[in-house]
Amino acid sequence: MPDVVVCGASGYAGALAAHLLWRHPAFELRAVTARSDVGRRLDDLYPRHRVPLVLEELDLERHGKVDAAVVAYPHGASAPVVSALLDLGTKVVDLSADFRLTDLEVYERWYGEHGAPDRMDEAVYGLTELRRQEVSGATLVANPGCYPTATLLALAPLARAGAIADVVVDAKSGVSGAGRGADDTTHFVSADENVTPYGVGGHRHSPEIDQELAALGADVPAAFTPHLLPLDQGELVSCYVTPRREMDDAELRGLYLEAYADEPFVELADRPPGVREVRDTNICRIFARADERTGKLMVFATIDNLWKGAASQAVQNLNLMFGRPEGEGIS
Amino acid sequence: MPDVVVCGASGYAGALAAHLLWRHPAFELRAVTARSDVGRRLDDLYPRHRVPLVLEELDLERHGKVDAAVVAYPHGASAPVVSALLDLGTKVVDLSADFRLTDLEVYERWYGEHGAPDRMDEAVYGLTELRRQEVSGATLVANPGCYPTATLLALAPLARAGAIADVVVDAKSGVSGAGRGADDTTHFVSADENVTPYGVGGHRHSPEIDQELAALGADVPAAFTPHLLPLDQGELVSCYVTPRREMDDAELRGLYLEAYADEPFVELADRPPGVREVRDTNICRIFARADERTGKLMVFATIDNLWKGAASQAVQNLNLMFGRPEGEGIS
Amino acid sequence: MPDVVVCGASGYAGALAAHLLWRHPAFELRAVTARSDVGRRLDDLYPRHRVPLVLEELDLERHGKVDAAVVAYPHGASAPVVSALLDLGTKVVDLSADFRLTDLEVYERWYGEHGAPDRMDEAVYGLTELRRQEVSGATLVANPGCYPTATLLALAPLARAGAIADVVVDAKSGVSGAGRGADDTTHFVSADENVTPYGVGGHRHSPEIDQELAALGADVPAAFTPHLLPLDQGELVSCYVTPRREMDDAELRGLYLEAYADEPFVELADRPPGVREVRDTNICRIFARADERTGKLMVFATIDNLWKGAASQAVQNLNLMFGRPEGEGIS
Amino acid sequence: MPDVVVCGASGYAGALAAHLLWRHPAFELRAVTARSDVGRRLDDLYPRHRVPLVLEELDLERHGKVDAAVVAYPHGASAPVVSALLDLGTKVVDLSADFRLTDLEVYERWYGEHGAPDRMDEAVYGLTELRRQEVSGATLVANPGCYPTATLLALAPLARAGAIADVVVDAKSGVSGAGRGADDTTHFVSADENVTPYGVGGHRHSPEIDQELAALGADVPAAFTPHLLPLDQGELVSCYVTPRREMDDAELRGLYLEAYADEPFVELADRPPGVREVRDTNICRIFARADERTGKLMVFATIDNLWKGAASQAVQNLNLMFGRPEGEGIS
């Protein structure tokens, strides 16, 4: 049974990954490491995850001798650790942004200096449904951001069909997407009874979305704007596509059926989905509709930002990298 | 001192209108009527509004002999009552949709038969900031819907400048916008920890938005989609405009300053606003930004759907109709 | 493999029971019945539960020929159905109040006429941890109410020790505890940003709590008052015990350790628990503390009202009735 | 017109006090000071309060020459500032705990060293309804804590009647009560969908409650336990009194009517109140009921913790200290 370590388990995504792997029938969770809260038990920090391990400082001597690692460090801090783990022969799923972008220059513009630029080529962008084959053979998977996950699953069928002339992506996320850092933004009193756009015109998930949309055939910059909502877990992207050619509802639905009918973790809804419907699951639920009045194609996709948008997609990828059934431990 | 009656005070908007008028220094609230909860005291039904009047059945004999009425009945039920009140010489602000649309055919397509089509011409569309003059002289004001209020204030400067080639309006509203009716949608367990698009491709506020955008100079159908959020009061519209010609941030901000610098109830924010910032106020708070990367103009506007989106705008209009200072009783 | 039917699957508790049994490795869910929403698929009504069965009207001919039934009807409606199922040889877990009280007179005072008084003797009160033996041999289990479940687990060690002279139980519950019925109380706008005591001096769970406390050795009426909180699932009972004799922290904790150290679904916390810590689990998490200043013993217990407070405890009981491991399908 | 300064206006209570005084017809708000966020405009930090002043560092030279000050510093930091202001002839309402306790030893046990012990005698405990006379003549008012405010208003009639043998106070508060400090407790993800007891057996408001209960005639330690709720503003105390002698509902209600019938800011409800009913008001709403079954007297009181529990009560006291109508600026 392959053993695995979660690096950065004191954050929301890392802690959930630890929870999923602790219960996983085919992996053995050896250790959880963190940069803060070292020495504290994970089930004290996150009682609901019930992982009875103590958070340790990362020690490559001990933690590097594992078959797999899920790294949930912030961007920048992640790359050197990932690189070291790869050197030791560990397969890695990295939840940071460090290996998602293929163009170093673009990375540096949005995130600053890169900690292991020579390893960028090794990474596979791990949006499982779109890169299943490559993920299976990868030693380093760059787990997608939560917004790109939902957006790309929402738009892939249209992008591949060459149907996107222009697209507005209005995204909404629960507060867990902002991470465990306590500040004015994540304070209950700030977020409660509120909704706020943020990162207007410059969110870091933009280049990631654009890169992958282009790879799928839609070389247009998406007008992507996230909003913070007063809820915990859950993300909705509302995509408004101006099509290259007219498309009616039947054709649109046909495209999505063809793309996703056999996907175990994509559901096609027959009405607009709410984020509650995918809470605590690895599922992306999609509703698409052609709007006669405006000629626009509207696609709504929901995920749980901590699950499919981070930790459970990491496990989905890990399963593939180790030849396990894709849904093991996350269904 | 003019006296006033609120018809339909058992709903959220009507009850708030009663609250505002009960405390208003220049109007005397004579009675509150309702179709349900008759005989119950309003401060029992809405303790926080503290209006110690008993809800009565509408009796034109008694209630029609007032100077002014705010009618907060559902569309369809409103028109005949409004018409009867006008016959009695009462000035009316109608919160329903019955007198907002100028084209009878359009009304009937979205709402069914009209109860007083011959009176449609008399109505002034009461988005105060855009129709101040006409409102002042009106006997019947059709109070705008909450979404149109926020959307039109957000887009008016661009529409007037002839700058809108295409526009997506992604709207978010708290649950009070869905009214007091208790059903699966408004049940706490349905709305909590959730966000759901609704009325996709066919919300009744669409024709109202389109009519008024056209009147302002932008004859394009807006791709308008509302979403239900887990909060009580508050509404945000996120508008993504494809401009007819390039426009940079400086020019964009200039347009908004010119339009709104002197408006007492419009605030121009220097960062994206949250709905909390306008809660329990008559204020619309707007942030506009030109997005270089996509060429889009992004405009975000927040209001309190029950205040500026309904009851306080009704009082704002009433003030004008009776020659009072516009902000009296709602500042 | 025993087959099972869930009667009353359109409500929150019944739907969750169906969800748990649909995934249960040792039971086969044959059908879901309901009194409303017949003909609708359960995964349309509750997408998140993902049970692809159609809600049927109860037909004893077809649905009675099963090994087991979970009945989630309202009190009053439940008794005759339960009785008929028992006649057909079906083992039943009943989630209603109909078979919880042992004294017919008490039942009738709180709930009205009883639909099958002759069957009351057959029922075992299914608070699993306190009645494991009897549940194992039962054909009819009366699943406890959510408040009694948390309260009795909180107080059992003290009651058995004869230590309770007087007790105040201040209970707090999420809105799902009020059921799926849409009314003024469960409307989002009523419950949001609010907290309200209800059933003051007369909640129906009082006689159930008193009966079972007496059975455990504490023959005192608990001053039980529930409060409605702005959250979905989760329940906290705060118990303030005036002890018959002084008890310090060490002795108190010893009592609880002795009672619960080996219980798989009871956790003893070392600080006051929050309801999030048990969300979507069958776990009851308890914190007990002797307060030197006042001499009171304080015990706080949290459960998920829909899980341990209803559906998962039903499955826990069903497991025992069919000789399965107690935690199967609910861990 | 007396001028006033608010010291510590960057916190929730101070900011609200500034908001109320900025609009107050009889005071002129000269300056707002803070220990953090100096140089930032208050309406940037708290847009909804709309106070267009810049936060300054406290400078007694400039800020001390005012008629009145509201000090909203943390305990410990407050005393020396208050003392200095008093020396300059400024009347002070202090929102910290520094001058609430009359016994220095008790203060030091709960809060540590006192910054101006010689001034403790000058302070009047400013629970307005209970100390109206003394507040009117005071130069230093110690504004009560939020929990004591609600608890003492709830229990005063019983305490004065000598009717309290024992009392449990189960208190529930929104997150704003925990202050603006961003930490694990106030993070949205921690508080959302949660309810947690805290300060079990040792909350700092306990000695304050006990001191004032004793002053009112009830020399019993209250078993006081607060709970954190997922809402912003609002506080409910549920008081369970074991009476010294039997008391029925009629007598109980009589006591409360006698005590509060003429109080402008105390409402006697005829059913259990929700905190929404007093949001953004200076009102305390109370419901009392004798419970026949247990013999207990139950009293429920709600306030807005930031208003009556802090800032608006401060203004209420300030009004009295300057001979203004008690409700001016806060009704």
Would you give an account of this structure?
4 copies of one chain form a homotetramer. Chain A has 331 residues and is an alpha/beta fold. Chain A is 31% helix and 21% strand. Chain A has 11 helices and 14 strands. Chain A has a 7-stranded parallel β-sheet with strand order 3-2-1-4-5-7-6, with helices on both faces. In chain A, strands 9-10-8-11-14-13-12 form a 7-stranded mixed β-sheet. Chain A is globular, with a radius of gyration of 19 Å. The relative contact order of chain A is 0.15. At the A-B interface, β8, β9, β10 and β11 of A face β8, β9, β10 and β11 of B.
Name some characteristics of this structure:
21% strand; 31% helix; 331 residues; homotetramer; seven-stranded parallel sheet; seven-stranded mixed sheet; alpha/beta
User: How many separate helices of chain A?
Assistant: 11
Q: Walk across the major sheet of chain A and give the strand order.
A: 3-2-1-4-5-7-6
Q: Which chains share the greatest interface? A: A-B, 47 and 47 residues
Order of helices and strands of chain A: EHEHEHEHEHEHEHEHEHEEHEEEH
**Coarse shape of chain A:** globular
Please give the oligomerization state of what you see. homotetramer
Mean pLDDT of chain A: 97
According to DSSP, the number of beta strands of chain A is: 14
- Helix residue percentage of chain A: 25-40%
% residues in beta strands of chain A = 15-25%
- Note the gap between the termini of chain A: 20 Å
